[in-house]
Design a protein that fits this description.
Chain lengths: 396, 396
């Protein structure tokens, strides 16, 4: 599959030796040839990694030329030295491409509590800078270089024609599949576009879209110390700001939604991608609370793993959300099959529904209330024995 | 092991045929020979079963002679007919022991969304009433009759001598091991004492103790539709009210704590009972929030299953609790071994700590903050492949 690569961006990754497995890329560079606007959305974990603190202080802003990402070591819980290392890593990246010292942002993912091997990081950055390219292969290599327990790289792109006839391109890459051995992992995402965006516009747009996409996914509900999403807009397509163009905003959201869904789809041990749609509440926050609780219930997720249309676990999860509702107005559909209505289960054939679940990688859950018009959508994966193996047996 | 059986109580259970497995007791009667005070604490799930609604309306109160419990069918999501069945079930129990119509409370646990087989319930109640006894065997049989996926019955008792020299006895039984196939299960508990307690005293005492015991346990954080805890105090020991006697209150709490711990200890698929102690917060609610989040984190629970002293998962779970704290004042101990201090991991030998976890059924986690003096304690179990099997593969 070929992607729409925004103008003025180049990509590279190398095996710098941070990861123990020989031949696995662990350092990626995303470079803009001209200064770009950057916006960021970060983990809300109070225990956050040095790169998160570093980027958060600098975005939104303009004049950025690079994002440097390493996998295999999260540079988290590393104190003062961890922050010095993040600063140095950003400076190496900026210097390696001939930009100003403060022109790079930085991301790290992998084990926590260990210092970065700065000699390998420095050598890796300079090596990556030598092979930067704007082709499909370089883009794919960069997406692979940020992976940890992911079983596949995650890359999506869109092209939009604006009102003035200009083409604008958006490409996004992400990693994340759960929190990983031996300590934890993370969600990381970089979205690059050649559209023109001012820093505050980019920040506002990214925040709104993240709340509908990346903030609606869960593998097991454990917020990492390193979660980071960066948007780079270098304006190479020219023209006016695209921030208020509905086609551009829709395309940006679409790329983010595709990336977001790909995380639980590739969730550790997952056999199903599950969409939880909650409708008919008084307020969106109520719908989100219920959707998130269902998406994170180990019992619901085990039922999905067993292809069981277990209406009781889903309805009872809504019941302990703290949201007030009239049970007699609740209905539940799984893969379009009506299972529950008017406060009681309906007469359905469990085997027919189970077959539909078993035969589809995706499961659709629609829980409808009679309280109002607000809705929310979450994506999650099922909870399998393989998930437990990955997260319990990693030392053996 | 022989128990302290309070005076004036008799017990029985029978196989009434509600459960499909032949020979498994599924109906228990706990009877007081004299009218007793009753107090209750119930599920906070908005979707709650008919017996919960029935008992909640009647407690606290006096004049109760019996609690009738069936396992195998939860009488939940059964609408108007479910409530009629709960009323009838209580009346059968009262009639069977020659008490007033409104002298019985009722509990159900098992599958949800199915009507109770009232003919079997009625016959079972009358059969149980014929074999009521106040000995160890009858008590144990009653505790077995309320089990669902529990691998063992749960019974604890205490004897206390009050200031006036009178002996007061307390015995408690409980069931619960997770939410079970094909829909869900529940925590149920009955505590009987021959102490004198007024209804409001009993209610206040039970609420306070439940908040420190039964409300501090979690298997997977899914609140059932049927959770019920009933305290019966029949005053057969005579004397004044025991409500303000510290020895009695401590003994009642001790029985409740033993019962509470026995639930995650027998958690579905569990190989460890884990105590999470959180200390040094400004407010108790902060400590509870953090303790509960750690106790329910699938990643933390998988690490326990793998006997891994994974400080990162524990500390980062505290970090996303929403509670403000200074990471540099946090320290973490697992089985007394110091793993984390001053915001960073310390130099410890993972194999020594792992060995201690592997060789002990119980794991102790102490997470200490530097914010204040409030603390909380939760009990949980680990998350194993067997848990997923029990909750995913129950149809195969």
């Amino acid at each position: 599959m070929s992607h729409f690569i925004p103008h003025g961006f180049r990509f590279a990754s190398v095996c710098s030796g941070i990861k123990h497995e020989a031949g696995r890329a662990d350092l990626a560079l995303i470079v803009s040839d001209v200064p770009a606007t950057a916006a960021g959305v970060y983990t809300k974990n109070l225990v956050c990694a040095a790169p998160v603190t570093f980027d958060r202080e600098r975005t939104p802003g303009r004049g950025f030329r690079a994002v440097v990402v390493n996998s295999g070591n999260a540079n988290a819980c590393t104190g003062k030295r961890g922050m010095e290392d993040a600063v140095a890593m950003a400076r190496f990246a900026a210097c390696a491409i001939g930009a100003a010292d403060d022109a790079a942002l930085v991301m790290s993912t992998g084990v926590i509590g260990h210092f970065l091997p700065m000699d390998k990081i420095e050598a890796g950055i300079y090596a990556a800078a030598q092979i930067l390219a704007s082709d499909e292969e370089a883009l794919t290599n960069a997406a692979k270089g940020i992976m940890t327990t992911d079983t596949r790289h995650k890359l999506f792109s869109k092209s939009v024609t604006l009102d003035d006839g200009r083409e604008v391109r958006i490409v996004g890459m992400a990693k994340g599949a759960g929190m990983i051995a031996p300590n934890m992992a993370t969600f990381l995402g970089v979205v690059a576009t050649d559209a023109v965006l001012e820093p505050e516009e980019a920040q506002s747009l990214l925040r709104t879209i993240a709340d509908k996409t990346f903030n609606c996914i869960t593998v097991e509900g454990h917020t990492s110390t390193n979660d980071t999403l960066i948007l780079l807009a270098n304006g190479a397509a020219g023209g006016a700001s695209a921030a208020s163009n509905p086609d551009f905003c829709a395309a940006l959201e679409s790329v983010c939604e595709d990336l977001a869904r790909s995380i639980p789809e590739d969730g550790e041990g997952a056999s199903h991608l599950v969409t939880i749609r909650v409708l008919g509440l008084k307020e969106e926050s109520h719908a989100r609370t219920i959707a998130k609780l269902i998406a994170e219930s180990p019992l619901v997720k085990c039922a999905f793993a067993g292809n069981d249309p277990n209406w009781g676990r889903i309805v009872s999860a809504a019941g302990y959300s703290g949201v007030e509702f009239d049970v007699s107005k609740v209905s539940l559909r799984v893969n379009q099959f009506l299972l529950f209505q008017n406060g009681a289960p309906v007469d359905f054939d469990p085997e027919t529904v189970a077959k539909s679940m078993r035969e589809n990688k995706e499961i659709d859950v629609e829980l409808r209330f009679g309280e109002g018009t607000a809705s929310a959508r979450f994506w999650t994966c099922d909870l399998t024995k393989e998930y437990v193996s990955i997260n319990a047996d990693y030392h053996t």
